[in-house]
Task: structure prediction
Amino acid sequence: MYRGMYYYGFDWTVVLLIIGMLLSMAASAKLKSTFSTFRRIGSMSGMTGAEAARRILQRAGIYDVQVVPIKGELTDHYDPRTKKVALSEPIYNQSSLAAVGVAAHECGHAVQHATNYAPLSIRSAIVPIANLGSTMAWPLFVLGLIMSFRPLLNLGIVLFMGAVLFQLVTLPVEFNASSRALKLLQADGILAEQEVRGARKVLGAAALTYVAALAASVLQLLRLVILAGGRDRD
Ligand SMILES: [Zn+2]
Result:
């Protein structure tokens, strides 16, 4: 018998999901608009994202990391396993403030990797837990609800916490990569001071999407805890 949370035919905790979704949508809309503004402003040096990335890596004394183009939009990332700074084609080929800023950010991750930046190592270490959490938490939780079996609900919640922890550790990694990027861009003279301000806006908007994702996950976690508590009262 469904009671408690479902007794009135409406699971109000869905509101938490909706708030999380709206936060994520707002952050990604902000990123898209900031990005489209600064991809139209060319850098004075005329350096493309790829050229800027190679220069930054060289200046940082990193010679074993490749800069490669990849398909898609905003698919840019640093892969620590293959030691590749992968830049989406527009970022790779263009010399806009957005392109140079994003390219430098990914190099920031390469520098973190080369210098054994602790949050990056922690983040890599909890990837398996996070993956397990994001795939298994809900199925186990729902099964726990159906069976009214508290240990299963708890296991679902703990697994989901693993996914939330991953997103939490992602924040210092991302903020640090961006602050390194902006310093490197200015120190190397790739961007002038007023241009760095534009790149900072792009990277700030990108960082905001990670904050929104974390907030959405925390709200989901709260929802699980409330739903599990609701079962207890039955
Ligand atoms: Zn990043």
About this structure: Residues 175 and 207 are 7 Å apart (CA to CA). Helices lie at 14-38, 49-59, 89-93, 97-114, 118-125, 127-147, 150-187, 193-232. The mean pLDDT is 92. The chain has one domain: 4-44+96-232.
